[in-house]
Amino acid sequence: MCTPTDAELLAAHREGDQHAFGELVARYRTRMWGIAVRTLHHREDAADVVQEALVAAYRRADSYRGEASVRTWLHRILVNACIDRIRQERRQGTVPLSEAEPRERRRDVAADVVTRLSVEDALAALPAPQRVALVLVDVQGWPVGEVAEILEIPVGTVKSRCARGRIRLGVLLGHLREEER
Amino acid sequence: MTERDPGREHPVELLADLDAGLLDAARAAQVRVDAEHDARAGAVLAALAATRAELASLGDPPVPAEFAARWDAALAEEARKSAGRTAPDDGTPAAPGVPTGHQSMDGAPSDQRSSLPRTTRRPEGPPPDALRPPRRIGRLGRARLRRLRPALVAAAVLAAAVVGGVLRAPGNPAPLSLDGVDLATAGVTVRGDFDVGDLADPVRRAGCLRAVTPPGVPPDALLLGGRDVVLDGHHGVLLLLAGGRRGHLHVVVVDPECGPQGGTLLGAQTIGE
Prior knowledge:
The structure holds two protein chains of two kinds.
Chain A lengths: L5 H9 L5 H21 L2 H18 L9 H22 L14 E3 L4 E3 L3 H6 L3 H12 L4 H8 L3 H18 L9
Antiparallel strand pairs in A: 1-2
Helix pairs in contact in A: 1-2, 2-3, 2-4, 3-4, 4-7, 6-8, 7-8
Chain B lengths: L11 H9 L4 H12 L2 H18 L8 H18 L59 H22 L12 E2 L5 H7 L12 H11 L10 E9 L2 E9 L6 E6 L10 E7 L2
Parallel strand pairs in B: 1-2
Antiparallel strand pairs in B: 2-3, 3-4, 4-5
């Protein structure tokens, strides 16, 4: 028996198949959770955002036109929800760590050994645009072209954000020396 | 053939652009040649590669069961609405399980050991029927929690089954009798079922919770499920509310008229540590 494609599942859902959307969600929700929690660095916010995205996708299924893949369409909804949440936090005066300069590496003076941040903490220290790009390209392994579609920005902008983000992250993770910047 | 440009030390940003594929072919070739003879540039490129590798090693964390069940419940509600099922009759635009931007997801620290507050009297309207004092809540022992975990998993499966259309939630079920039923067990079994009448309205529900003050339950706690119940002979509405952190839930039973003007807390229990 052939496994239905994402597009076939979405079409079935639009036609009233009550199983189809659940099956589509099952394919992607772990990945969506991973993207949200690494982008927002807050579990409850990430859970909220995934829920918002799933409900929005359910409601907007009729608006899917097929220009992008269903995967891209679904993750665009998710990423936009993440970005909206970050902006909302900024408006409420909660300055996310990502908006500040990256934290300096903590140094063990006695041993002159740099205490590295965890990768998750280091990601959270990046400005949101760089963080989102790296989560999608380097963590999730998505092609740059598809990430550009999701974010609705040029491919060059995705690459540029990745390049700058990798520099900052490299310093925070101890791969790159501070003086190299 | 591209020749090395001796003495040129390329800035980190340029090397990062090379690493990211941003340079045109000719420029990229030149920088690569230069980097092959520059230990510092080589170290930078290696550092960028190590950074990418470390990011790639991050897997997707597993979805917490509580969140999966919450999402399933929200989608189940959407399915019910689109099929013309019983929905909140107060015109609330969002599904009860869908959080709004202002709704806090972090509950106040729970107080699991205090007794329940007294009934708050409404200033207007007839007073509620005379009721026995609300039952005292007690902290769940670890043994009880272990027995509860299968129920939590079962509730998640139940919610998922509703989304999948395998199991249809009843339209207007009769009130659930809680005689002999542990509140916590009853709470998790109503997950995804939002038959709570006027208490589906978040404003009404928040006003009710402020009035009856179940211990440790924030007024804007997210509703995960609920239904009509009968507890100790009294009609009420059971509300399953998010506790703000993984595995932490509140089960609250209030009278059906509960609102900002007052109400009666018939029972309350906190699930989880």
